[in-house]
Amino acid sequence: MTDYSSLEMRVAVPGELNIVLDLMGEAASWLKSIGVDQWQGPFRVERIADGIAAGRVWFAEGKRGVDREVVGTITVDEFADMDFWTEADDLDSALYVHRMAVRREDAGRGIGAFMLEWAAKLGRDHGKSRLRLDANRDNTSLQRYYQRLGWQHVRTVYRSWRPSGALFELPLGPRGS
């Protein structure tokens, strides 16, 4: 059993691409089983590998016995997906969350909230005023999850080639809060 009180974030390093792909693949299989068309196409492996090399991909780890185990992943960067966000959104004021996934056996135990809180702190530390993400338009339970955590729905954008487009942001308090 993983000790969730011991959760810590650490940056992914080259050679750990398969850990990210396994977490995302597990999440994609589960999403498909509940009828959500998210992450069903091939993963952008090169983009994920580039994110790891640039230090933008992170792992949540918890203690299992004497060892630490990866229980989730999140990518946080300054990349505003221009399919959804526009210059009018003050793009530089935010950090953006991508590809967040929690190991299925550890789901429902606050790991996603832990990673998002950590990302909010990272945003404040970088002088950003908000954290943003885009979610699948049809995954209303995920959208409600973000809202329960204090995220605000900005708008929903429809692009025929993308199932995502429900845009959310979390206002960030001042640095150190």
UniProtKB/TrEMBL annotation:
Known CDD domains for this protein? NAT_SF
Gene3D superfamilies, alphabetized: 3.40.630.30
Q: Where is the N-acetyltransferase domain?
A: 7-173
**Which chain positions lie within coiled-coil regions?**
none
Single GO molecular-function term? acyltransferase activity, transferring groups other than amino-acyl groups
Instruction: Provide the alphabetized UniProt keywords.
Output: Acyltransferase, Transferase
Q: Which PANTHER family match?
A: AMINOALKYLPHOSPHONATE N-ACETYLTRANSFERASE-RELATED (PTHR43877:SF2), AMINOALKYLPHOSPHONATE N-ACETYLTRANSFERASE-RELATED-RELATED (PTHR43877)
This chain's protein is named Acetyltransferase (GNAT) family protein
| Organism expressing this protein natively | Actinokineospora alba
